[in-house]
Amino acid sequence: MKLLDFLKRERKKSASVAKERLQIIVAHQRSQRGQPDFLPMLEKELLEVIRRYVEVDDDAINMSLDSEDNCSVLELNVTLPRSS
């Protein structure tokens, strides 16, 4: 019986972890809904320009667009490798 109790506890733990991950994914997708269609293309083009000078991974660039009143702010974060 102890083995069955242990397995049930593990399922509950993994279920809660899966639920948290799903909530993060849903929140991320909701935050992307209001963004203009050009942002993915802009991110790709910026990454190409950066790669002319520095080798970076595909996930090295993060962009977000915040809008308040009549002003929009585009935030761009690029993780660059350390130079040797």
UniProtKB/TrEMBL annotation:
The keyword Cell division applies. One of its GO terms (molecular function) is identical protein binding. Gene3D superfamilies: Cell division topological specificity factor MinE. Transmembrane segments: none annotated. Coiled coil: none annotated. Belongs to the MinE family. Keywords: Cell cycle, Cell division. The lineage of its organism: Bacteria, Pseudomonadati, Pseudomonadota, Gammaproteobacteria, Oceanospirillales. InterPro entries: MinE, MinE_sf. It holds the Pfam family MinE. Prevents the cell division inhibition by proteins MinC and MinD at internal division sites while permitting inhibition at polar sites. This ensures cell division at the proper site by restricting the formation of a division septum at the midpoint of the long axis of the cell. This is Cell division topological specificity factor. It comes from Halomonas sp. RT37. GO terms for biological process: cell division; regulation of division septum assembly. HAMAP family: MinE.
